Amino acid sequence: MKLRNILLVAGGSLFIGAVISACGSVSGESHTHIEEGAHQEANVQVVMEETWDEWTFALDRTEVAAGEVIFEVTNDGKFTHELMVYPSQDISSLLEEMVEAARTGIEAEHTEEIEGLVADAEGEDELVLAPDESGSFAIRLTPGTYELACLIVEMVGEETFTHYEKGMRATLVVQ
C-alpha cells in the first residue's frame, strides 16, 4: 500500500510503472511462480522517499528466486540515500556507534561490521543516489532473508539519526 501512495505522489512515473507491470503488483504481492531449485534473474523496483513524518524504502516485490537480482532504485527524496543488502541481523549496536561517532565529528565506516554484506561483480557493496537520481545494483543472492537498508547518518539541527531508524529499510525473502 505504501508503494501505491508513493506512486501517486510521484505522479505515476512511467519508469516505475513499467517495472511494476513487468515484475508484480503494486500491493507488493509477487505473482511470479518460483520453482524449487530454479536460479533466474529477477528485478526488484525500490523507491526511496521521505516525507515530513514518514521515510520509506518501498519494494514492488518481497520475494525472489535465488540467483542474480537486479535492484532498479529511484531516490524520490530530498536526501542522499544508499542501498545496502545483507542477511537479516541485529544492527542496533552498530547504529548507536554510528550516531555517536557523528555527534563527535568522526565518520564511522560501517561496511566491515555488517556480516554477509553483499557486493556486486565490481566489489561495490552499496549504491548511493542523490535526490532525483536512479540507478541499478545487480547482485547474486542465495536463499535466505535479507535486509535492504540505508545506513546514512544525518545531523539536522540538534538531532542526529540514521536513515534506517527513520524507516529506510525493507525485507526481501530469497527462495
Low-confidence stretches: 1-39
Compute the CA-based radius of gyration.
16 Å
How many β-strand stretches?
11
CATH fold group: Immunoglobulin-like
Q: What percent strand?
A: 35-45%
The number of distinct helices, counting runs of at least 4 residues, comes to 4
Shape type: globular
Strand order of the largest sheet: 3-11-8-5-6
Largest sheet: 5 strands, mixed
Q: How do the strands and helices of this protein lay out in sequence?
A:
Layout: H1 2-9, H2 14-23, E1 42-50, E2 55-59, E3 63-64, E4 67-75, E5 81-87, H3 92-103, E6 127-129, E7 134-141, E8 144-149, E9 153-156, E10 159-162, H4 163-166, E11 169-174
Parallel strand pairs: 1-4, 3-11
Antiparallel strand pairs: 1-2, 4-7, 5-6, 5-8, 8-11, 9-10
Brief account:
The protein has 175 residues and is α+β, with helices and mostly antiparallel strands. Helix content is 19%, strand content 36%. It has 4 helices and 11 strands.
3D structure, described in words:
With 175 residues, the protein is of the alpha+beta class. The protein has a single domain, classed as Cupredoxins -  blue copper proteins (Immunoglobulin-like, Sandwich). Helices cover 19% and strands 36% of the residues. It has four helices and eleven strands. A five-stranded mixed sheet has the order 3-11-8-5-6, with no helix packed on it. Strands 2-1-4-7 form a four-stranded mixed sheet, covered by helices on one side. Strands 9-10 form a two-stranded antiparallel ribbon. A hairpin with a 4-residue loop joins strand 1 and strand 2. The longest helix has 12 residues. The radius of gyration is 16 Å and the shape is globular. The N terminus is likely disordered.
